[in-house]
Structure formats: C-alpha cells, structure tokens
Specification:
binds adenosine-5'-triphosphate; 325 residues; AAA+_ATPase; 15% strand; globular; Rossmann fold; binds magnesium ion; 2 domains; Sigma-54 interaction domain-containing protein; nucleotide-binding; five-stranded parallel sheet; Arc Repressor Mutant, subunit A; 42% helix; four-stranded mixed sheet; ATP-binding; 15 strands; alpha/beta; 14 helices
C-alpha cells in the first residue's frame, strides 16, 4: 500500500494527537497546567516543530484548535475541551494560560468538578502513560502510585528498581515512567530515555563499562578515539538499566559515584570528572537480595514489584490479550 503523506493527512495526524492529549487532561479543583506545545505534539507524531506549528495554526484558523499565547505557545483541541468540561469556548486565541483558566472558571466548570473531587490536593489530574497501562486501576495500582511518587520526589526524583519475571512489563513500565515524567512536567519534552541492557555485554565487563561510561583515546587496545558513553547520552533524562543484575561490581561502584555525587569518569580518565544528572530506572528478573550489592539497593530506594502475567486475574489477562487482536 502506498501512503501519500500530503498536507491534509499531516494536519489530521496532528489534530488526532491534539484531541487525544486534550481528552487525557482532567480538572481537579484548579488548573496550573493546560495546553500542549507544538514541539511535544510534533514529537509524538514524528513531525518537526516548524511543520507542526504551521498545521496547528491552520487548525486554529479553522476554529478546531485553541491557541494560548506565551512562552511556550500552547494548543488544545476545542471540541474535546468543550465536551469534557461542558462549556462553550468562543475564542480561538487566548493571551495567556490565566485568561483561558479564568474563562473556564467562569463557566462554573470548577464548581461541578470540585464536588466530585473535593478530597484531592493536586491542581490538575493528568492521565499519564502510567495511568493508561493495563491494570492501572487494579493489579498495578500500588506500583503506579509508587512510580509516580518516585518521579515527583523533589528535587530530581528517586531512582527505582523494577522487579518481575520475563514478560511482566518491566520495559513497558519504565517507558511509561519516563513518559509520565514528561507529562508531569518533571522532565522537558526533549529529555532522553536511554535503554542499556547489561546482559548484552555481560561476558565482557570492560566493554560493558566502556559502553556505559565512555572512554578516552588509548584507554585500551583499540580505543583510537575518545567516545562518549550511555551516561552522557542519558544526561538530563532517564537511564533504563535492563537486567541490572548482570552489571559487574565495578560498574555498580561507578554508578554509586554518579548517584551520590553526580559525577563519573570515562574509562581511562584519571583526573577529569564529568557531571551528569540521570534518573536511573533499573530492572531485573532476579531476587534482588541475592544478586545485587546491598549498597546498590540502598541507593535505589524505590522497589517496584510487577506481578507475572499468570498471576493476574483471568479477566485482566483477557483484556490484555485481546489488545493484540
Ligand atoms: N500493564 C501493561 N499494559 C500494557 N501492555 C503491557 C503491560 N504489561 C506488559 N505489556 C506488554 O507485554 C509485552 C511484554 O512486556 P515487556 O517487554 O515490557 O516485559 P518485560 O518484563 O520487559 O520482559 P523481559 O523480561 O522479557 O524484558 C509487551 O508487548 C508490552 O507492551
Ligand atoms: Mg524488558
């Protein structure tokens, strides 16, 4: 099948994504976050920022999208917003977030929602990637609460270890944590998510460490030029260390220095230290006490145990499986 990707399908793609994002927003008893940046929307659909902005502005002209001026400029889908919160919005362009918020308040929207959500303190409830996982309200409820708390822990979040058998959803969960961190505004939209599987290099610890931390010229035979490592790439975002029980003790030690002091060295570097800020989400299928240094566990305070697929209820398993057909 040949897909001709013309302007209208590009606009549609963006419009659909904007709709989805707007639907995922929910009010609690106030708002401090509303609207989505062109860059973020564009990244989700694989279209560059300039073209995304162009299409969004067309949608604003057609009165399908709402534009909130400011730095950054934000967009919302009009219909979803109107339907979701039972109000009519005449304007297509707002001067600021405050302006649209006060309009929504005037529409008595808040009174209606306040009633049902009296007991919550947060200003807005965003349906994050974690909330959209299968089992979010049942078998994974506790795990998701823990993960959100880890992400939101000030100032930079808490490192987490996900434990669960193969296929339990560890990689999926880690990715959802990353996406949620962006949705919750903890990370910027362009922050990295880097996956490193410690098992890939398990029989060559030197190679593993050089991949992870990088190396300088001459660090070992064959190190002809300096190379940056995974830590460098993950700076400012999430490093997902899969099968972390395969990380050699030396690597764990180097990771501690990074966790404790925010510094690391490339292999072969003796004087220079480098800075990096990464949130580590590690995963293992093993019983942690037996395979990971106790010092590692002390630095990764959040343990998230995922149930195996078999242990989920039949109904859940059915929902889960039917997703693939
Ligand atoms: N709660 C969930 N919601 C939606 N999809 C899920 C969920 N849990 C697992 N999956 C799906 O199940 C499959 C296996 O999940 P995943 O690869 O994340 O498991 P894993 O624990 O990382 O496995 P492995 O140990 O083999 O790496 C994927 O297709 C994933 O999308
Ligand atoms: Mg996995």
């Amino acid at each position: 099948m040949i897909t001709i990707f013309d302007d209208s399908s590009r606009k549609n793609k963006i419009y659909q994504k904007l709709k989805e994002l707007t639907i995922s927003l929910q009010f609690k008893d106030g708002i401090n976050k509303i609207g989505f940046e062109a860059e973020y929307i564009g990244r989700l659909v694989g279209i560059d920022r300039a073209n995304t902005s162009r299409e969004l502005n067309k949608l604003v002209k057609e009165k399908k999208a709402i534009k909130i001026k400011g730095k950054p400029v934000l967009y919302l889908d009009r219909k979803s917003l109107e339907e979701k919160w039972g109000c009519r919005i005449e304007n297509s362009v707002f001067g600021s977030r405050e302006e649209i918020i006060s309009l929504l308040k005037e529409s008595k929207l808040f009174c209606r929602n306040e009633e049902s959500q009296k007991n919550t303190n947060s200003n807005i409830f965003l349906n994050t990637a974690l909330d959209n996982m299968i089992g979010a309200h049942e078998s994974l409820k506790e795990q998701i609460e823990k993960a959100k708390a880890a992400i939101l822990y000030p100032p930079n979040g808490l490192h987490a270890l996900i434990i669960g058998p193969t296929g339990a959803g560890k990689t999926t969960f880690a990715e959802a944590m990353y996406k949620s961190a962006i949705q919750l505004g903890v990370f910027s939209n362009d922050s990295p998510f880097v996956i490193f599987n410690c098992a890939d290099y398990a029989d060559n610890p030197q190679l593993l460490l050089s991949q992870l931390f990088g190396y300088v010229k001459g660090a070992f035979t064959g190190a002809a030029t300096e190379k940056k490592g995974i830590i460098d790439e993950a700076d400012g975002g999430v490093l997902f260390l899969d099968e972390v029980h395969r990380l050699p003790a030396e690597g764990q030690e180097m990771l501690f220095t990074l966790i404790d002091k925010g510094i690391y060295r490339r292999m072969g570097e003796s004087t220079t230290t480098r800075k990096a800020k990464v949130l580590i989400v590690a995963a293992t299928t093993e019983d942690t006490r037996s395979v990971l240094l106790s010092t590692f566990l002390r630095r990764v305070p959040v343990l998230i145990q995922l149930p195996s697929l078999e242990s989920r209820t039949l109904k859940k398993r059915f929902t889960f499986i039917s997703q693939f057909f």
